[in-house]
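Subgroup meeting minutes
Present: P.N., E.W., G.H.
Scribe: E.W.

1. P.N. recapped why we're keeping a running log of single-chain structure predictions: easier to compare across weeks, and new members can see raw inputs and outputs side by side.
2. G.H. added today's entry (223 aa).
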Amino acid sequence: MNGPQRLTREIMAMIVTRDLFDGAIVNLGVGLPLECANFLPPDKEILLHSELGLLGFGPVVSDYRDADPYLTMVGGVPVTAQHGMSFMSHDESFALIRGGHIDVAVLGGLQVDQEGNLANTQLIGKPSGNLGGAQDLAYGAKKTVVLMYHTTSREEKKILERCTLPLTTPRCVNRIVTDVAVIDVENQGLVLREVAPGWNAEMVQSITEANLIIDSELKEIGL
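Output recorded in log:
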């Protein structure tokens, strides 16, 4: 689509991490959410959690020649060690998730709808999806943030009245951060809180199927 520029994946990640609170335990999904590991606020202690048994790891390794094959998160992505980080078994790691000890789960999304339903594991036409820990995280985390592009590469809308793809978890999403907007899922529906520079509410609505409630204090995204 022609018009104002969309935000880069790095800025999208910064929008998520700017709102993390000091001491938060955060799980990052594969894909876009992993960018958040590289932009944690230096004035806060954010403990990153991985289903593979890591807690308190650092940024993703940029040069794979420096990677430790035994220090990886989901998808085999190598990460850096941090002082004080913890290692645990797979079952203990999922006990943290299922026990409600994850403060924020940042997940990618294929579709989100106005009820906060999330579809992020299976595309139509594929024989099976890749669920991993997404279902546990989306349901078990105290807050679920979906970080995704607002539309597909073919300009298909991803924020819908009702998801058409198989659901990962129902009514789990609290916030959606895209390359054009920040949207909160409230009882009354989807509330548009912030827009990217050069965008306005009407432009965001034009690429969103679900009806957006415009925040009375709608503002431009800032970091």
